[in-house]
Queue: 3 jobs
Job 1
Amino acid sequence: MTWDTIVTASPTFILGLPLLFAFLTTLVGRFSKRLGKLLFGVGLLLTTFFVGVMSYQVLTDGSWFYVFGAEQPSPENLLSFFRITFVADGFAVLATLTIAITALAAGIYSYSFMKGESGLNKFYTLFLLTLAGVNGMVLTGDLFNLFVWFEVTSVASCALVAFRNYKGKSVEAGLKYMVLSTVGGLFVLFSIGLLYGQYGVLNYALLREGITGTFIDKLALGILVVMFAMKSSSVPMQMWAPDAYGEAPGSVTPFIAITSMGSLFVLFRLLFGVFSVSISPAASGSILIILGVLSMIVGVTMALVQSDLKRLIAYLSVSQIGYMMMAVGVGLATLNTGEYESFGELAMQGGLFHMINDGVYKALLFLSAVAVVHATGIRSLNELGGVAHKMPYTTFFFLLGALSIAGIPPLSGFSSKLLIYKSVYLYSPILVIIALVVSIITLAIIGKAFFNAFLGPNQGLVKNHISKTMLLSMGILTAVLVLFTLFPNVVVTEIVSPAIEGLIGSFEGVLP
Amino acid sequence: MNWEMSRVVRTITDILIVPMIIFGIYLVLHGHLTPGGGFQGGAVIASSTALLIVSYGTLGKHKKDLSSIEAVGLTLFILIAFFGIGYTMFYNYLAGTGGIFGGTVPAGPNPGYINTGGTVTLMNLMVGIEVSAALSLILWMMSRESGIMEAKDKGSEGMEVKG
Amino acid sequence: MSWDAFFMTMPYLAVVILLSIGLYTVLFKKNLIKIIMGIAIMQNGANLFLVSLAYRDGYYAPIFTSAESTDMVMPTAHALTLTSIVIGLATTALMLSFTIMIKRHYGSINTEDVRRCKE
């Protein structure tokens, strides 16, 4: 076994190590709680390390397929495509990086935040299982496997949402999320059946060649779009998101948000990688744009009336999902036309850059808001006030996240939003006007939240201490955010552009 | 105070449990040859737990053991998959090597030889262990929480607000 | 349409009926247990769909002992169905556990009473 073998196998490590450590944590945690805790951290770090290994390999040497239990597929060896395939390309790198950053921050945050809860071993297990599920979802190369990881993510993340089962509301949010996810999963299975019944293959690469664009294909695509849009908390089905984000244990809230981002990654992969050849991309792109604009408007409107800090950020995150869907939708709608060259690609860059960006600053925002709730025991904005006197670091972190989500110039949220505005304006100016208005309202909302919670006279609300590990995890996110702020062009050329290549040109040249 | 059925039911349970578990083990071990496999066999074994719970109203103090057994099964499953990483993950490195589970599959229709599965047999075994333990645990927890078995008093609402 | 072709469509009819019943139950019933039952019915509908897709007249089950390999059906859809059944077990167990906890916290499993997240 050489280093090359391990590098080639890095996609399976990203998936297998969280699984292995999830079960090891339960097992070892029986005998020693400290060791279980340690294993959780080791598992997270190792997973992140292999994400780095895979990213480095993909970005330097190009993408590859990884087949379980058989040889690499090639034009001569197509039979391997009937096995479980993983795709390691630029898009998988973008997705796993986004997930890994948030997972690492949320994991470190959990260490001291969850202190005092019972059944922590199970918490670590669920956390790592969710991580494995999301990674599997974005890495997998066939529909069957996608369904399995979809369900693993659903079950594990719903159990995470309801982890504090001594609170009725947590369980209620978990059940709501679970019912929706299960129904969604069943319809995903149904549409997989529709596709399999026609073509007899499940692999993305083979399906891409095989799909002819019949009515049943369109039906299957419609079901898949609706279900994955639901899981990514896009608008017609956004109602589970605020409950789940609001009632999940604070430290995993950004992680639950990242599972919905994972669904969005999968949605894009399916639309571009599988269906864009045979089913008119213009039509599916328009649907994405409509969903995105609706999410932006509805998310921000609902956020206006929230007085609960966590629910407010949850609704803002719904509206941010809308930006990504709109931008990538513009890219999809112009795919294969001359417009793609002029502005479609720019829109894709903006959309995908916004995804990784949003993953980071949303996590920062959630974690700093949770720190406030943890320190004061109050979630209502009407009762909070003057926290900044006692929590200067958290205030700084929240301010950074708030300015990013509102797209204020020096920060990285602005860079990605600028790309979106510039390109979408050429597609349809009215969309940009809506996006700008939403952005301004976002600024107003998050500004109101910031003033209410942090500024004002010191009311002596801060009771609990914010531990160093919590600050460390927010610091990691801030460091990443600052990097994105300082070098947005590097991120776009080095990470986002390969991702677009992987998304659009994926599976080309593999088949004869 | 445990909830318990009559002596007739309990005796029949005692008798039936043995063939149930043996049938479950049969299903698990023949998973690579006949319909069945780890999950199905494990479910059959776990149904004997259901019988125990219904007739005796208790499982004794084996909850922690069940949880550990489940974790052991899962960990070994993943490890067996990882051992093939030199070639690819989930590679069947035992098949055709001779020795235990490594027999060569003869060509053409044949009655099926249990010695031929390679890692598939081992993985079926692990899944069987995992599923039987996990399902028993689920049944145990649910029947305790829903009052078939004596429920322990848990913490109620009214905890402090947390993020 | 011949009788044979008509009978071949019967499973799909059953699939549609099962999915509709399940969806109706999930959308319009107030009892949490009934909602979970509706999901289980939908699950069976989806499984039946996959199994009837994989059915080929005159071919054998892919067990290595009984027939020539050319006379066997491709078992991918069956594998999907088995996986779906396993996953269905996990999701049903989790949802039922949630329902038990909701009953303990709220004293009711009616969806009208179980709406406190927004307060």
Note: Chain A touches chain B at residues 1, 5-6, 9, 12, 16, 19-20, 23-24, 26-27, 30, 66-71, 84, 113, 164, 166-168, 249-251, 253, 310, 369-374, 377-379 (CB under 8 Å).
Job 2
Amino acid sequence: MATNTGGLSLTQQRQRAAFWFIAPMLAALFFVAAWPLIRTIWFSLTNTALSDLYGGEWIGFDNYLSLRILESGRWIWRGTLVDPAWWNAVWNTVRFAFVSVFFETVLGLIVALVLNAEFKGRGIVRAAILIPWAIPTIVSAKMWAWMLNDQFGIINDIMLNLGLIDQKIAWTASTETAMYAVLMVDIWKTTPFMALLILAGLQMVPRDIYEAAKLDGVNPVKVFFRITLPLIRPALAVAIIFRMLDALRIFDLVYVLTPNSAATKTMSVISRENMIDFDKFAYGAAQSTLLFAIIAVFVSLYIWLGKVDFSGEGQR
Amino acid sequence: MAKIELKNVTKSYGAVQVIKGIDLTIEKGEFMVFVGPSGCGKSTLLRLISGLEEITTGDMLFDGERVNNLIPSKRGIAMVFQSYALYPHMKVYDNMAFGMKLDKTSDAEIRKRVENAAKLLQIDHLLDRLPKQLSGGQRQRVAIGRAIVRDPRVFLFDEPLSNLDAALRVQTRLEIAKLHHSMSNVTMIYVTHDQVEAMTLADRIAVLRDGRLEQAGTPAELYEHPNSLFVAGFIGSPKMNFLTGKFAEAEGCTTLGVRSEHLEVVDNSPWTGEVLHVEDLGSDHFLFVEIGSDEPVIVRRPGKATIPVGTRVSIAPKPGHLYRFDKDGKPVR
């Protein structure tokens, strides 16, 4: 082997070894992430149909926006960017993402603070609290759909008996409550995940800093806002980004819990609907591409504005 | 400024008793060092005094006032932690000012006190930096500064030098000693496992072992009159030579102790053997002599080494410098 590497410096040898260790990962990422993304963007610039995936012709940006001027002189704008259904989905998604991530963060923080305290059976509680997150979304969505059922659901029954409502509510079907139903289930499901991410951050805070604060006579509320919160901010920021990414591409829960409700249809749902149900494959691909762009913009803004530190050095 | 009295203090974690009944009085303005091997309970004892841990039974009095149930911030104490425990997200100034700011001390007063403390510790040029921009020694000073500005009755140090390198440790030790002189009315309690730190800093030392107070006294008292085999072996460097068997029987005890500097090379003596090794420290040197005891006997001699390895020498203790212990490790009077 000596002849093989004879000409390379130690650094070059290390770089070469590093490359070969990373290569499988790069290949996997290319095939499962980069290639589908490139294909989707390419599809969005063609008139590909679901029945003939390789027969699409290049039509430029017509799926996004195109202008036809009729002989009568009327201008007709077409494409996703002037599609009210699309903008409704964008609004639904953004609203869903902000509200759900907000509540998940607040509740997750509270749960994490509780789990960070020392008490008997903490290990079991930590494991137990993960259950909602561990259940596959399809299963928990079906479970909640049944509990929220307007005729036989236990939630209506309980609220009726407690006198909170006078008549049964069609939680998932009614346009007024559908979004609340989706939000509630998502918050129920994802708070544990958020709590665990925040808990990891909390456990990075050295215990003696709290003791120093105790000697300084800092009351617990101030300790939280002046010491704990600033110190877990990096962990919190990363947790929020993860959840934001997830929330902006929410699909399964909406699809199962409130199928075909304009009040909850999200970008992912409407994009799939166009691609598969409406046989407007390229149009759906354009919406997928826009979804990708929106998420990219959100995350870049957040990282830039929040000066999120991914290097971990802020934890010192 | 406070006299601290511990009366039969114990501390248990569940069924495990780590402090097993300690009686100790620490006088006003005294520099008291708790020393002992790891796990002896010295840090726990300090935390009991600080109020970070609650005592299980017994009483603790500050200036005669029972403080068993007083929260840490009301005890008038300041503590320097082993890891410094600086607030990582606050600048040096804010680290030192944080406690006062919450007390609603006026800004001018805070600034004055922080700047005075910073000047005393020579960290006044670092006030705008974050802890992570400081070296270990500088962080240590900030931690001490944070304690000073609290204007405490009692200063607690929990192994403050153990994260510093050897040179810095000696330097910081000197500064803590200077601090004690300049704040002579503040009681200081210092925990260490290093007997050299204890000997150099303390007015009085409390040697702890296995949750009990083994002996308390001035460094000279402990050095010259250890009242147990454990204290005799723990205090002093190099460790006191312990001889058993026929060596001890000849003196009518179970264990015979003699410090290395109290041994002389003589012409003729029953203690004769080969020099196994020589450590030359420049100002003085150590001979390791194999005289048939459990371990080679260490002899400390001034100046440079003159006796080569392999030489047979006779050694004898100087008169009046033998320590005799019975089978329980207690001194034979």
Note: DSSP finds nine helices and 18 strands in chain B.
Job 3
Amino acid sequence: MRWPWAATAGRRGLHPAAWWLWAACLAGAATRTTNPLLLLLVAAVAAFVVAARRTDAPWSRSLVVFVRVGAVVIVLRVVLEVLFGNRLPGHVLVTLPHVPLPSWARGVSVGGPVTAEAVLQAAVEGLRLAVVLVCFGAANSLASPYRLLRCLPPVLYEAGVAVTVTLAFAPELVVAVGEVRAARRLRGRPVRGVAGLRGMAVPVLETALDRSLQLAASMDARGYGRRASLAPAARRAASGGTALGLLLVVAGVYGLLVPGSLPAGGVPFVVLGAGLVAGGLAARGRRTLRTRYRPDPWGAPEWLVAGSGVAALGALVVASVVGTPGLTFAAYPLTAPALPLLPTVGLLAGLLPAVVAPVERRPDRSVPTDRSRGEPAAARSDGRAA
Amino acid sequence: MIRFDHVSFTYDGAEVPTLDRVDLVVGEGELCVVVGPTGSGKTTLLRAVNGLVPHFTGGRLAGEVRVAGRSTRDVPPRELADVVGMVGQDPAASFVTDVVEDELAYTMENLGLAPDVMRRRVEDTLDLLGLHDLRDRPLRSLSGGQQQRVAIGAVLTASPGVLVLDEPTSALDPAAAEEVLASLTRLVHDLGLTVLLAEHRLERVLPFADTVVLVPGRGGPLEIGPADEIMVGSPVAPPLVELGRLAGWRPLPLSVRDARRVAGPLRDRLAGAVPRPPVTVPGAGGGPAGRLERVTVRFGAVRALEDVDVAVAAGEVVAVMGRNGSGKSTLLGQLAGVRRPDAGRVLVGGVDPAGLTPRELVARVGLVPQDAGVLLYGESVADECAAADHDTGLVPGTSAGVLDRLVPGLPPGRHPRDLSEGQRLALALAVVLAPAPPLVLLDEPTRGLDYRAKERLVGQLAGLAAAGHAVVVATHDVELVARVATRTVVLAEGEVVADGPARDVICHSPIFAPQVAKVLAPEPWLTVDEVRGALAGSGTRG
């Protein structure tokens, strides 16, 4: 870690952890309020910063995907409310036919009067979840998860790669689905409905698995998983210690949650377990050969970006602790939301990265990207773009 | 540097060993080209060098493979990462990271090199392979040739003594292939790297080869020797070598330059003769089978096709050429109704193919995509044929009959994944051709095919055209175009830049001209068979 006055030469964009911390703080701030104006403000702040600082990389388009998923979440939440919601009194919008349920399902109501209050309440709750998703979409757009994984300590790196491969499996699957669909159409087979789905599952999984295996072979051929010679006994001791430590931590947490089940509330278990895990990891870590190429420096811009996120979250936390009015959405009775001063100012501080974060060198646009083999996913599904 | 001692290898469940008592020594600083028919075990041989065979494939390996003194018997592939750089057939499938610079550093990070060493080597490699402008680019946004160079760079940074490449140019357009091969020769000459390389399109790599290893397949003994000696008797030979054999040139010239220097007498003998292709394709004569009218297709900001007007008539074989990503596959996709165009109109047999149900579609258009295997997902060859008959409402046995005419004697019980590349293509072609669609589209059909399989493909395509089908082939393979195309359409950045008789379009292009044309320029000869025919004709006349 470097200090703010350290030179920023040789940097390749902002440290990914700073972006993720900033986004996580905004997401945390969103969970602290149900005021729709504040929630929309969080989303706007995140979107503005992404628009100002994203690159042309493929992952920069993640935000749009997350926004779409967020919209689906809101719709779903409202639909569920309309069908199965609470039937409190209010302004009735429409009355659905009430479905009588047997006595054992008395807690659930289906149909009945739908009130404006209930629908708005549900929409706001959906919005809160959607805004959290937008924040993570923003983090994805600004720094790919892979870049974040590079910052993991070497000991955890291998677990991190396993995660990356898993993450890569999903887009592979999407590409494979496109290809298999196109191929089935060319064979004159149904691509829709149950018959289409059944016929597609096996080839899709086969294709995606094939690619993952290729990746595994390539990683091995390039030295992934090499380690300095560690005596088998020492290796077993380190692994055993880590496993035992994890068990102790689990037991200890159980003790913490269920009073009286373990002596001293399970605290000694947690402490001992954590110690064992740390020791085991450290022992293995010393044996890991891996070095890191051009680690991202942590300088003044990183402090400012992370700080702006913490400020936004802090403002919301302080406001909820001191009980600033207007943090929650009042549906009963229906009142128009207001913008409370402290949280608004705090959230606006989250805009700081749009100014202080260094602009990443953008990939050269003069080189046409359409020369790539299968660059846009849409092109790949189109019978594999050449 | 690389030493195979009595190496035999048998895949699980196979009766015949893929490699049988192979003895091979590749010395330091040698560029060794592995040639052989499809499915002869070239890839197996290459992957045995760093132990991916058998560590990742299973099967039984006897004998010993040693690289720089280390035996693959004792260490897994990762422990050889510092001596062997392995580049697979599909570079995109081997990328682990997402940005060029990180990809170049990946192997070194695993080897635990010091950060300043890594930084220096990455910069060196960027310069060496001309990747400097691409260092921040996401890997997925690169072109095929750029991806191939990054894949080579990514193993080079670890400064391995041995570089193993499996068909490094098969997916590339002629210009990108030149680019990659030029980088490779430079590495061999400047750094003394040992290179072992498999390739089907020998016309591209033979000029650079020190030694050639001929893998005859079916576990037969390897032939190893200098390129010009081995190629005299090789069952797989590029057009240049065949021309040399025909003209009786010794030593056999392996580059266009060498051939031109000895081709003077041949050019004189051919003077005045008119090239007459031995494979006769009727050419446009029938009605229009398919046409694109001012079609524009976009993928986001990328223009795949821009205002394209192309018509295909029955009896024609149209070759669509152009560099990687110029819109060839998209053009075929439009004719097959894979998606609707953003502007313009597509007509196949008078109707819009994108509006047809799958079943109506297969009666009008047949498309064999680049990776023919994606069309096949039955459990066996017989299963696949039966499914095709059922899906398209044909009399049972039709597809099997078509297949039998294409490749006689394909075992019906074999799983499609166990077929060779050429057999798989034939099977895909059979199921697509069974409903006798008037328009047949093939995307890059010669990828992974050896010369003999290509020969059969040429015959099949000519036969289709003669039977009144319209055929469109998207390909990088200039030799295939020279053999069979009646018309060539060249695409660049989604626009049609040339459309005319194949001979006129490709003969004088520095990139698309086939080897024979380059040797015999300015006379418009395209193939060895034309020359052979003309010589035979002149022989009988006196």
Note: Chain A has two domains: 16-172+300-361, 233-287.
